[in-house]
Predict the 3D structure of the following.
Amino acid sequence: MLIFPEPRRVSDSGSCVSYADRRWLVLPAEAGFELKEAAMCAAELLSERFFSPVEVTAGTPGAGARLLTMVRDSTLPPEGYRLETTPEQALLSASGDAGFYYGLLTFRQLLSEPCRVPLMRIDDAPDFARRGYMLDVSRCKVPAMQELKRTVDSLSALRYNELQLYMEHSFAFAGDERVWFDSSPLTPAEIMELDRYCRSRFIELVPNLNSFGHLGRWLCLGEYRGLAESPEPWYFEAWDAWYQATLAPGKEALDFIDRLYAEFLPNFTSGMLNIGCDETVELGQGRSRKLCAERGLHRVYLDFLSELVKLAGRHGRRVQFWGDIILHEPELIPELPQGVTALDWGYEANHPFRDECAKFRAAGIPFYVCPGTSAWNSITGRTANMFGNIGSAARCGRESGAAGLLLTDWGDGGHHQYWPLSWPGIAAAAGWSWNAASSVEEAVPYAVDFAFNPGGDGRLGELLLDYGRICEAFAHPGVNQTCFWGILNAPDRRCNRELLELATADEAAAALAALASWRGRMTEHPPKAPRLVLDELANSSELARLALESLAARKGGAFDAAAWNDGLRRVIGRHRDLWLARNRAGGLRESMNVLEGFLKKDIR
């Protein structure tokens, strides 16, 4: 028997009892709307393990035996629960409705055999009060509503209680069609529908709208260019890229953001708002150059951040913000406005979470630790980095008193990673944010099936993890990407060129052999999973093969450019179909353009 996330304390008698004749789930007094909804969903799922339907009541059943009775116990911690299975029935105690819900999820996992449960007692509560997941819906890929709801179901099964959809332009702001016309944005009605759906599963949908940087889709347009720090694109040498995405701090920028907040925020019931404010790389290079020279770049940043916090407060929201910029001048951290929560993000296994957490803690600023799935810019995923990054964030966050853990899932470079590649990271973050001391790595394959692939045989999670280990053939696997993604995506950019120079022909050959072995396992003994998942992994692995062949050719191997182009065109065609199976059409053309840019142009 495996329970995920791993509980704090389990006392197991070693024997089992049959509940075959049990019928009722009995709610506690004054159960809230969300708990009633959740209990009815749980009853439906539990009925699959019983010979007759499980029913829910908030009263005292006049006939029929009780399967599980919920009792309020104010001595238990928030979101904690105690579950006891006795020969007569199961008893579930909690101080709040969320605790009852998580206890029901555990009870469902105990029914590994129809109608039978082990006689045991479980005392459990989470390590992190906030356990969040953030999905990028601004870099090409906006999931269909049904897919978003399935994602909420999976997150809820893993006991996440916060969801953010990262937005720059992918909300249907009225009158701003030129900004979002090709992105299939979420509408106000869809946000309200998703908000309601999340609440019924004890998840808070937190609005997320970047309010300082990353506004390129707005600032490139003539009517908004006057708000930009750089009226023309500015070359950022450190990243070897051009940018025009940061607001020039001032009243005009605040008025613009105020208008967006007034239209965007009322569609959410959450009292929080993630205002972003990360990677404001142009700040001080354009309109604010003189001001930054006089007051200091990070002082100007802090002043504008403080004005955004006041603005959000007028809209009834407490602020979260990305903590990367203020960490450049940590002596300013104590001057952050009261009530803000810093989001300390970093995506490599060796990210200095402990040192950065200490700076926020010393200043009395609440903070989250924010690792990543390691799926973007990878094709295959990066398993070792994923476990190292998330595990380190959880341990350092727990030791430092972090208010939450927010797992990020970005779509850089065209959002080419398929959804299953994120599942191991989502499962790992769920396990460690609930119980930072638990043995998560061993349980991830089970958790992947439990949350994302019901009825699976346990092999899908193992195959996903092994897929993400192929990049480990390289001694220098890359930062925020895999080596073979770098060979495809702008190989002449300085950061990629340096990485590719370090790769050897032997490493490329070893990676190709590992990929061929993995593809053979998938073909000969496919996991029990929907056809869509298998097709996504097949197309992903074909792109990985082409990338590695291109790398091997750069290291002196033979190369048939025409055949390689034909293979890539097949990948692009399948990419279109697989994209539309889960996501809206907006952004697809942009994503495909990136892949089409990889075609070899110098064929004679």
Notes: The mean pLDDT is 95. The CA atoms of residues 192 and 267 lie 5 Å apart. The longest strand covers residues 9-18.
